UniProtKB/TrEMBL annotation:
SUPFAM superfamilies: Actin-like ATPase domain, Winged helix' DNA-binding domain. Residues 17-59 form the HTH marR-type domain. This is ROK family protein. Residues 388-409 are annotated as: Disordered. Pfam families: MarR_2 (PF12802), ROK (PF00480). InterPro entries: ATPase_NBD (IPR043129), HTH_MarR-typ (IPR000835), ROK (IPR000600), WH-like_DNA-bd_sf (IPR036388), WH_DNA-bd_sf (IPR036390). It comes from the Bacteria. Belongs to the ROK (NagC/XylR) family. PANTHER family: BIFUNCTIONAL UDP-N-ACETYLGLUCOSAMINE 2-EPIMERASE_N-ACETYLMANNOSAMINE KINASE, ROK (REPRESSOR, ORF, KINASE) FAMILY.
Length: 409
């Protein structure tokens, strides 16, 4: 029993190796794939044939003359990632809306939308129904679907351990969504701040930012969250809560937080306390945040003071995560990135003492570049990475129930 399992595992690994090489380097000949992956040419030929049969790789219709590097040789027929077989559906859940992004394996966007879910506080079933409808709307005949759902809260496996902002107890969201789908596809449930952290990390690296070994991420939008990256990978901790900076207590006798503690970062830099401090009606709503943005740009003194004070709270959180995890960089996301110019004085004020004492040990503070779509793009990367890691999970067309039920409505 162990022999076949081991062989199957090796083949899965090698299929992933070839597919990831094409993803990283673009179209390659089989010879270039053998050289780049270290696999023998005969194995590469068989693996490429398997990937073509699954629809994950396509062969160029036009051969390239000459050998790699410009020398003479027989015509090459490069292979590349195919776009027509897999749809990755990313769903980002906020308090009021579902942001949905569908893309192909080659990275092309197929469809993007944002719709209200109208699920009431505490009703996980209604939200699962809305997510299932959004997934069904992206199903196209002939394409395998992979789904990644990003939302706030500590997540272990596919279980949301505590969705404080949504009023749920521990909930298996994957099972709830799958039960509402005919022939449910593979579904991953991920923490929105963790995948946003990963997306920002990669986006900044693509722009030339050289990250240290340990990076913390703090974001604020509908709530305050965070993530911790070690050597470019999410470090989730023992219970999926590592990097939950929004619920890091900053004051022993601070205001009560919905998480059960007092004085957390969220009660100082969250949307409701921040907009309330700025004197804006309907605090915490999207309209209130937009109004705060308008007032900041207009130089409104109360708005500027409120955000500066929130910057002091963010600075205290930076000191805490720096002391605990020795983060060499802190990436700000969401409106923390947007309003960094108004937050920066408060951050600098709070961190000045330690920076003066040990200047070389304080983390760099970097503004994220993806804005409110960071978590959505991070969820998309999660789904895409799952396909790249296990191409054998994508069936050969005509040999399975290929997740092709309904076309987009």
């Amino acid at each position: 029993m162990t022999g076949p399992a081991r062989t199957q595992g090796v083949r899965r690994h090698n299929l992933s190796l070839v597919l990831r090489h094409l993803d990283a380097h673009g179209p390659c000949s089989r010879t270039e794939l053998a050289r780049g992956t270290g696999l023998v040419p005969a194995s590469v030929t068989a693996l490429v044939a398997d990937l073509i049969a699954r629809g994950l790789v396509a062969e160029s219709p036009f051969p390239t003359l000459g050998a790699p590097g410009g020398g003479r040789g027989r015509p090459r027929r490069p292979v590349r990632l195919a776009s027509g077989r897999v749809t990755i559906v990313a769903v980002r859940v906020s308090l009021e809306r579902l942001d949905v992004l569908a893309a192909d394996l080659a990275g092309g966007t197929l469809h993007q939308t944002s719709v209200p879910h109208r699920a009431s506080f505490g009703d996980a079933g209604a939200l699962a129904t809305a997510i299932a409808a959004a997934v069904d709307a992206e199903r196209v005949p002939g394409r395998t679907v992979r789904v990644a759902i990003a939302m706030a809260g500590p997540i272990t496996g596919d279980t949301v351990a505590a969705a404080i902002d949504f009023g749920w107890p521990s909930t298996d969201l994957r099972a709830l969504v799958a039960a509402r789908l005919d022939d449910p596809p593979p579904i991953d449930v991920v923490n929105d701040a963790n995948v946003a952290a990963l997306a920002e990390y990669r986006a900044l690296a693509a722009r030339g930012v050289r990250h240290p070994g340990t990076v913390a991420y703090i974001k604020a939008d509908t709530g305050v969250g965070g993530g911790l990256l070690v050597d470019g990978r999410v470090h989730a901790g023992s219970h999926g809560t590592a990097g939950e900076i929004g619920h890091m207590p900053l004051a022993l006798d601070g205001p009560p937080c919905a998480c059960g503690a007092r004085g957390c970062l969220a009660v100082y830099a969250g949307p409701e306390p921040l907009t309330r401090a700025a004197g804006i009606p309907s605090p915490g709503s999207g309209e209130a945040l937009a109004e705060l943005d308008r007032r900041l740009h207009a130089g409104d003194e109360r708005a500027v003071a409120a955000v500066r004070e929130a910057g002091r709270a963010v600075g205290a959180a930076i000191l805490g995560v720096s002391a605990l995890a020795d983060a060499g960089e802190v990436i700000l996301g969401g409106y923390l990135a947007t309003w960094e110019p108004w937050l920066a004085p408060g951050i600098a004020e709070q961190t000045a003492g330690r920076r003066a004492l040990v200047p070389g040990l304080q983390p760099a503070v970097t503004r994220g570049v993806l804005g409110p779509e960071a978590a959505l793009h991070g969820a998309l990367q999660t789904g895409r990475d799952a396909v790249l890691s296990d191409p054998s999970a994508v069936p050969v067309p005509g040999t399975d129930r290929a997740r092709t039920t309904t076309a987009r409505k």
